[in-house]
Amino acid sequence: MKNCYNNDNSIGEVLAKKETLWINPYKMPIETVDGLSQLAVSDGDIADAEKRLQRFAPFIKKCFPETEETGGLIESPLHEINKMQLALQNYADVRMSGRLFLKMDSHLAIAGSVKARGGIYEVLKHAETLAIENGLLTYNDDYSRLAEPEFKEFFGKYTVQVGSTGNLGMSIGIMSAALGFKVKVHMSADAKQWKKELLRSHGVEVIEYQDDYSKAVAEGRKNSDADPKSHFVDDEKSLDLFLGYAVAAKRLKGQLDEQGIIVDEDHPLIVYLPAGVGGAPGGVAYGLKRIYGDVVHCFFVEPTLYPSVLLGIATQKFEKANVHDFGIHGLTAADGLACASPSSLVTRIMTNHLSGTFTVADGRLYDYMRLLDASENITVEPSGCAAFAGAVGLFKYENAKRYCAEHGLDETKLTNATHIAWATGGKLLPEEIKNEYLNTYLVEEG
Ligand SMILES: *Cc1c(COP(=O)(O)O)cnc(C)c1O
User: Fold this and answer.
1) Which amino acids bring their CB within 6 angstroms of ligand 1?
2) Would the pLDDT of 1 be above 60?
């Protein structure tokens, strides 16, 4: 791990399970890696995913009336949170420059988390492929037809399976069930009880493991591979999941433009994304890099107990990195981020694009949740609050200051900056669980 020390002791702090910022030494200017990146995921691939979601919009609108307003597109608001920004500054005793926004994927329709992007996209693509291959559908059809009983019967012959800590299972489960697929969700020990119950209420078969996420994924994959009529949504390497997430970038650009927010060399965009296996933040960040290039800076945030994407990239061992091999153990409250090994696709494709990764302690997540609830009256689940550790961390850590200096982010540019904390889940939290979280205080170790 020579390279990943990067002139500071952040890896030492990661291994000591301390909150820190790791700056990615492999990041390169976009033009030097553009060709190779596009070979893996091109602008055309992302545009294709966007068109597919448009084709499905009439179906989604018909099955999920909550998407009526957006015409069947699943999209979340971009909301400025200046009261939260003040609260964070007080809480962390830092002064932040620029404006802080919340990208509210916590409130996405249907699944109530960022997984409503990638997870739902992959299920839709699978359904489309099956229907077209079997001569039941053409690309020019009105896809609201897919809500007819004939299709439910057809999809009922097929199974969709997925490994999940909760939210991915909810997005895959709810959309697959709406199409008529049989669904099996393999859930890790970190998964919350209420998420299991909600899934079962949709007719989803939930299989529980007393082990971590990597195990649930491995078992699900094995189970699915044994059945030729079963499709496995593979969170550790799926390109379709990635593309579904990447579509977020162009939609965000539309929202920034609409709100008159300038993003250019003098007005940088700095985005903080909670990362589990890396798929969701990876897809979103990659999409943003394709649009904004070097003027967007993408940071991931991971729990101190699960810095898997960080270690995958830092060691360049990619999916072979496992937090347990570094002596990092423990059950995190950040169920959505509890992945011991990262995505093979994302650790590779983000190696040259990621700015760095903040780590955050569990107790902090509840504090952020309380601050957001009190200042803005917005509910985001603990995992989804991880992004705030980045927004304050950029103004706290010495190596963050060095990163800014090296990237020409002087005080003027930071004052003009737009910071986006990506809120990733929360809408479906039952009221009593929300109250329990709001009253959870963890004593920090060391
Ligand atoms: C899944 C999830 C993430 C991170 O997505 P990955 O693809 O696992 O990196 C972040 N927050 C929440 C609430 C999630 O459910």
Assistant:
1) 113-115, 167-168, 274-281, 336-337, 339, 381, 383-384, 424-425
2) no
